[in-house]
Amino acid sequence: MRRTRRTGTAPEMAVRRALHRRGLRYLVDVAPPGTNKRRRVDVLLRGARIALFVDGCFWHSCPEHGQLPKANREWWRVKLHGVVVRDRDTDVQLTAAGWRVVRVWEHEDPDDVADRVLALVTALPAKPPPG
Ligand SMILES: [Zn+2]
């Protein structure tokens, strides 16, 4: 049986490895402080305040691969729409809490994803010197 919330899927692991190879460090499957504890972020880059989600094509209704199962079609339509609605609400909540939300599809090339995240991180203004 497919579950709605999985952590450490193969595509997510590939993205995490690609980030790690670029020297990026992150937390996995956590809710940032001050946000809904039930909306966990796949990959959290704390310093850069980036919340990265690797969305599964089926559950998150990828425009290329998201297909409704033939059986119980209407039930699935409602169910999967609910996932998308919740995703958007999670984005709003995280953005309000000062996080930059980055969503990628599980079908995307993990190195491309990691390059995009790295570009975001390096585009940040330099931290002021200590003291
Ligand atoms: Zn897809």
UniProtKB/TrEMBL annotation:
<dbReference type="GO" id="GO:0006298">
    <property type="term" value="P:mismatch repair"/>
</dbReference>
<keyword id="KW-0540">Nuclease</keyword>
<keyword id="KW-0227">DNA damage</keyword>
<dbReference type="GO" id="GO:0004519">
    <property type="term" value="F:endonuclease activity"/>
</dbReference>
<comment type="similarity">
    <text>Belongs to the Vsr family.</text>
</comment>
<keyword id="KW-0378">Hydrolase</keyword>
<dbReference type="GO" id="GO:0016787">
    <property type="term" value="F:hydrolase activity"/>
</dbReference>
<dbReference type="InterPro" id="IPR004603">
    <property type="entry name" value="DNA_mismatch_endonuc_vsr"/>
</dbReference>
<dbReference type="InterPro" id="IPR011335">
    <property type="entry name" value="Restrct_endonuc-II-like"/>
</dbReference>
<keyword id="KW-0255">Endonuclease</keyword>
<keyword id="KW-0234">DNA repair</keyword>
<protein>
    <submittedName>
        <fullName>DNA mismatch endonuclease, patch repair protein</fullName>
    </submittedName>
</protein>
<dbReference type="Pfam" id="PF03852">
    <property type="entry name" value="Vsr"/>
</dbReference>
